[in-house]
Amino acid sequence: MHADRHERRCLVTQAFGAIGTWHPLLEKVESEGEHEGSRRTAKAKDGSRQVERLQELKPNERRYRYSIESTAMPIKNYVSELRVDDAGDGMSKAKSRGRATSTSPATIRPRWSRRSKTSTRPVSTA
Known about the structure:
The chain has one helix spanning 5-14; strands at 26-31, 39-44, 49-58, 63-70, 75-88, 91-102, 117-121. The protein contains 1 helix and 7 strands. The longest helix has 10 residues, at 5-14. Helix content is 8%, strand content 48%. It has a 7-stranded antiparallel β-sheet. By secondary structure, it is mainly beta.
């Protein structure tokens, strides 16, 4: 049985631990649940690990907000929101917007910290 477009869009934002099934840089994700307060540990293909906590879940709006509790990146106070919208013709538009405080002595802010990243691609349930 194939999921309809709505179900495919919702999969991304209703399953906090399912990010490993569609994120191209992740090798493995372990999740402690799918509710606010749940933690997930993501292992990237480069071997780095990151622990994140689900702060807010809005399945009807196809979005969630999470924070990073530990990471190899030189940041702290990271909070991000992932949202998935219908882009038409079976495609979905994923938007991610995050902010963090740098712990590096460098003072240059990367471009991604000022704008959301947008990607349009099919979302599969397989």
